[in-house]
Specification:
With 844 residues, the protein is of the alpha+beta class. The chain has 26 helices and 37 strands. The chain has a four-stranded parallel beta sheet, covered by helices on one side. Strands 6-5-9-19 form a four-stranded antiparallel beta sheet. Strands 13-14-12-15 form a four-stranded mixed beta sheet. The protein is globular and about 105 Å long. The model has no long low-confidence stretch (mean pLDDT 88). The structure holds one RNA strand of 85 nucleotides.
Amino acid sequence: MDKIDISNIDKKWQSFWSEKKNKFKNTDKNKKFYCLEMFPYPSGKIHMGHVRNYAIGDVVARYKMMNGFNVLHPMGWDSFGLPAENAARENNLNPKEWTKKNISAMKHQLKLLGLSVDWDREISTCDEEYYKHQQELFIDFYNKGLVVRKETYVNWDPIEKSVLANEQVIDGRGWRSNAIVERKKLYQWFFNISKFSEELLEDLDTLKEWPERVKLMQKNWIGKSVGCEINFKLSGVEKFIKVFTTRPDTIFGATFLAVSVDHPICENYKKLPKFLDFKKKCSQVGTTEEAIANAEKIGFKTDLEVEHPFIKDKTIPIYVSNFILMDYGTGAIFGCPAHDQRDFEFATKYNLEIKPVVKPKDANLINLKNEAYTGDGTIINSEFLNGLKVPDAKEKIVKEIAKKNIGKKKITFRLKDWGVSRQRYWGCPIPMIYLKNGEVVPVDKSELPVKLPENIDVNSKGNPLDTHPTWKKTKYKKTGEEAIRETDTLDTFVDSSWYFIRFCSPKNKSKAFDEDSFKYWMPVDQYIGGIEHAILHLLYSRFFMRAIKYCNKRISIKEPFKGLFTQGMVCHETYQDEKGKWISPDQVENTQIGMKSKIDGSKIKVGPSEAMSKSKKNIVDPESMIKIYGADAVRWFILSDSPPERDVQWSTAGVSASHKFIQRIWALNQKTLNRNQNKNDDEKKFSLKFNEYVFKITDLIEKFQLNVAIAKIYEITSLFENNLEKKISNEKFINYQTQFLKMLLPFAPHLSCECLSKLEGKNFYSNMQWPKGSKSLLDKQEVTLVVQINGKKRALINAKKDLSEKDVLIEAKKIDNIKKNLKDKRIIKNIFVKNKIINFIIAK
RNA sequence: GCCCUCGUGGUGAAAUGGUAGACACAAAGGACUUAAAAUCCUUGCCCGUAUGGGAGUGACAGUUCGAGUCUGUCCGAGGGCACCA
């Protein structure tokens, strides 16, 4: 028997599909399906995470094609970003050349997977043709007021004189200079995403095909909180400080006020050395939420006090503190240490009064020695609020505050405007210019794109666009006066916030997208990508869709992604030598006495399985795996071993087993062609079973349970193997096998098509149609009923479907083991569930 | 710190509240072979030759005729936190 020649068959079908452009005969223009996987960053080599992402997407795309849909399945490159600049610095390469080279290498590798991707629609975000339209969109947004300029903080490296990304800050220091990173204020461009806060939150409910946990993460990210603004009057003067709180019910427990270092009242102290010291300390904490939350809470006591609005003659001190953020709420809070953990820690540190105002149901629980009490309860020590429950007290105090005219109910969102300015070279230039009179205006659209200069000095300190000798000098088209270009580039998240729209009309030169193509293809029916994008990328894309709708009356869609699937990561065991150096899997072999180094035979320590990463060297290269085992085996393994939404562990044994299975199908196909049978006595039983599998696999693919679908394919293979000798005519057998191979096709397309063409006696095969099961055959299927006594399994009954309780009882009582167990026992009742169980409840 | 997810054999896992461990990996034993590879078969907690019985899904409670699945508390692992993409 011949073995399958994997590499020839891979090549043969890949070139066949590329000529046919993956269009199958039965597509219906009225049924569209837009299947999209998150496009890759062109790092130069595909990794197993890509293989998994695109293997899942390809199953969906091919399955939909086979069901008659007109499928859009494009691919492109998220090709701006920091790594190109780093590579440029390290290897003295031009970022553009580096990126181009990487794209062509990765495209070659992706093609080896045999994906049903339409390469005619390929786009790359660093192409002028792409970012030109992005600049247009930016200007459209600007003209509609969706772009604003304001000050915000960045991580500043004082030695490199440049802004650092969070990942470039390690333990509070710059990754290259090792300088202590400072928080520095810069003017930056923002997208006014917070304008849509309410909408972005509410519309989550319309996303029925999104995972609940992603929606929950977005909900928390947007962070709507209902609270109250209160003006506290400064002692002695007619000035007020506005605070925001979600716990106005605890106002009688307020013992201090805390404001952000950036609060306007701090202006008073900007010359005071003690305050400047304090401010410097604050600025050395990173800009991430995590860093701020974990930083030790410190405070600066001002000489100011406010009057308590409800307690006569009580004054409250004002502190400046690092745990208050200027861009959330009003940048000021009242501290109620008894009922807020952060306030508690602060008060303990500075010896401030801790006054309980909420009594828990179980009064013994109150213990304010170690932590605040943040739970529910009854209000105490609070005059007119005493005795009320927390929610009722909130309502009452808000009314009182409004009555006194010192504040009002207020809804605040955690979601901040999206800062899109980056002080970097390898990104889309922001199409704005600065005039001499201080005005900032957009570049005239006729002058787009604002191109990146190619001759840059990547090793210069600071932003290469800013230090470039001529690039930023320009003229304002309207007046001809000299002007200076914006030297910041756009966050690369902007590039990926609309690429899915560009795919609808990727070649359109005059505008970002053609409205008719947009209307036909959008929204994306199935979007597939990593869970790590659950918040930002998806939220930004949702914002972009709304912003585009806001600017273009012909667009009515708000949500870009109808269905979302988030896949897990690809993991591998980690290996270390005796010195603790990380060792890559291909330098390790498994011997009878444990893991050994292939190079010097030394002992290797096996660590836990973790997401594949360069730093731990636990990477397996897809291309070499494809070379050894073939594209189908690699795709098959990565889909078979775990549910797609969970992490999967790569194993060489696993992919080699997948390869064996490919051989097994190939062998079965040859046995089928060589068998000789024309009787049909055994066909009925076989067809009943097979028919059941058609329904099961269809359902499992629809539900994304691809690993289970694959388990069923293993079972079907055994079913065919076990029936080779049975009395089923060749014609029938080949007919079933054709249907079977079509169900295999989305998972292992090269193998499936090769087997199909062999069954037909042709060289190629392209008439694809997903098999349709028969509902009436399904009803003839036998079922297994469980016989229980007091909920414990005691026997099984094989029976026709839909047997009545009476008949099942008769059958059950015939079984020896049941007779034995029911002897001399009193049956209290039976529980019967059709086609499932009969449970005898007996007296003990 | 805040938020989210996940805990089932040696391993990856399966199971509309109804047979726990399908399917696969690894292991052990066997068949075929001069031998190996390949392939195929069997086994897999405890008691029992076996029919059978018992324990068992991170821990402890609860709801139910019946809980891996639902509820609560706890323990453990992983992920996200706005300039990585």
